[in-house]
Amino acid sequence: MVMEYCVCGMQEMLDSVPEKRFPVFQAHGYFLQLLDGLEYLHSQGIVHKDIKPGNLLLTTDGTLKISDLGVAEALHPFAKDDTCRTSQGSPAFQPPEIANGLDTFSGFKVDIWSAGVTLYNITTSLYPFEGDNIYKLFENIGKGDYSVPEECGPSLSDLLQGMLEYDPVKRFSIQHIRQHKRRRLQFERTLWVLTLLTKTSSNDCDETSFPWLLMTEASLCNKGVLDPPAICGANERKRG
What we know:
The chain has a three-stranded antiparallel beta sheet with strand order 1-3-4. Strands 2-5 form a two-stranded antiparallel sheet. It has two domains: 8-184, Transferase(Phosphotransferase), domain 1; 204-239, no CATH class. It has helices at residues 10-15, 24-43, 96-99, 107-124, 134-143, 153-163, 174-179, 181-184, 210-222, 230-239; strands spanning 8-9, 46-47, 56-58, 64-66, 73-74, 83-84, 105-106. Helix 4 (107-124) runs antiparallel to helix 6 (153-163). It is mainly α. The chain is 42% helix and 7% strand. Its cofactor is Mg(2+); Mn(2+).
């Protein structure tokens, strides 16, 4: 299986700078892409359940890709709603209904909450809820008490509060977020921007599936299954 190449993960980018956050315009752009991705997943009846910077990848042109559907759930095609019964996502990104051990919950609203924690993190470098261990963390999440730093400003604060609403019924839906004034704002590009992390080693291709593809293609060519290898030819031209 050959998939498009993502040059780095969002968490890697955040970890690469002391501020541990994105400038406002950059965070806003990534968030809008995340919103598009979530809307598509939900339209296909998929609940991701583990949205976080570590599961968001970026291509060479800065396009965001949602990855790692290891704990995702595909709703039954004839399901009446998005009710879920299990969740194994990362603790810091779980909503109160999961922290409090509810038997059933809205899967889509779980993703909205996790996206809210993600937005909170990439704009402030902080988490709305913390704890010395998972039990204390879930206790704090279960209470639902948090604050938004003043530097976030009124529009971002209002959006975060809507996405991190304790009551999942009152919590923003994707439609609410799309109508929010924050989404429609335009932010001026600043000189400070986190660049994509790319490898500069001359042996980059050895760290990918490229050598295996070359070997497989050469083998098929030797057996007469394929015509002379286009990949090998391109590789030779590159080396030459």
